[in-house]
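Appendix C reproduces, verbatim, an entry submitted by the partner laboratory led by Prof. M.T., so that reviewers can inspect both the input and the predicted structure.
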Amino acid sequence: MSLYQAILDEAPSEDLHFTSINLTDRKTVWQLDGSAGFAAKVTRGRGAIFVCEKATALTLEALQASFAPFGVGEAVECDASQYILAIGILDDTELMLLGRDADVTASPVEFSPTSDDIRSIVGTNSDYYYGYEDRYRTVYEEGARLWESAEPNASLLQMIRERPDVFSGRIIDLGCGEGRDSLYLLSQGHDVVSVDVSHTALDRARELAAAANLDASGFVERDIIYLRGFEDNSFDLAMNMGCLHMLVEEEQRARHISRVFDILRPGGHFIVDHCSGEWGKGFFSIPDYAEVAPDLVPGRVIPRRIRVADGEKNIGLEVLPYSERSGDALAEEIGRHGFSVVSSTHTNTEAFGSSTMLLFQKPAS
C-alpha cells in the first residue's frame, strides 16, 4: 500500500509511523521532511502546501508554481527527494504525518524567500478559497439557518424531468455548498459524493443530512479545481450547479474541467449550470437589482437578503468574483477538454438568475 493510500485510510501497521502537527497560526511556516519519503494529510482546518524539490534552489517562482490549498481529508505524498513547506490558512490547522520510519520531522523555519513571501502567495488565492467560507459563516452568525433555500435548484429538477436516465450510478456534486441538491438526490436513493471548499457549509449540510436520516459521510472538503483523492473513471455523473461561474481564472477553470473529464467513466455525463449574463438579476438575495447593479463589482459591499427565523433581513456582503459565459462560449470552452454537448437550455432561477444549463457527455470509448 502506498503512503498516500495509507494516510487516507489512516491504516496503522508496524512499519508506518503516524505523528501530528498543529499549524498554530497563519504566520509560521513549517518545514516537513523525511529521509525515506512521507505523506501528509489535513485533519483540521485548511493548510497551504508547497511541495519542494531538495535538489532545486528555493525561489519565489518555484513556490508560486508548487502552491496549493488543502482542506480536511486531502493528502499529499512526497518521495525521498522532496519536502513540504506548510502554513495554516485557518487558525489551529492540524496535519497528520506518516512515514515508513520514525524520522519524519516538522519544524518552524525562516528562509529566503521569506515567510512574508509565502504568506503573500497564499493571500493571492483568497477570493476563491476563502470568500465563500466567510460568506457562509457571516450569514449564519446573522441568524440565517441557510444561505440558500433548502429546496433543490429548480434547474436540477428540470434536468431530472427531461433526462432522468443520466441520474444513475455514482454522482458527484461539485461545489455543493449546504447540500441542497445532494440532499434531494440522497433522499431519492442516489449514490452521491458532495464536495466544497467551505467547511462551515459542509458542517451545515451534514447536520441537515443527519436530521433527515440520510448518510452524511459523502460530504467532504475538496477543492473542485484539483479534485484530489478521486480515481479516474469513478463517477457516472458530475454536476456543477452554479460553482464554475465562481472561477474567473482561465487556468483554474481549465484544470477543473479537465479533472472532471478524468474522474468520469466513459460515457458519463457532466451537467453545468452557469450564469450567462446580468449577474445578480433574479437572485433571491438581490431583490433590488436595478438599484445595486452598478455596485455588482467584486470587492464592493452591497445589501443581500437572507432568511432568518422571524422573516427576512438585509445584511452587507462583499461581492465575490464571478464569470459570465454565453451558452455557445461555455460549450466551446468545455468541449475543448473532450466533452460533447448533448443539450443546452436557458434557465432563470432565484439561485443563479439568467443562466445556461448544458448537458455534456464524455465519449464512450
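The chain has a mean pLDDT of 90. Additional entries are available on request from the coordinating office.
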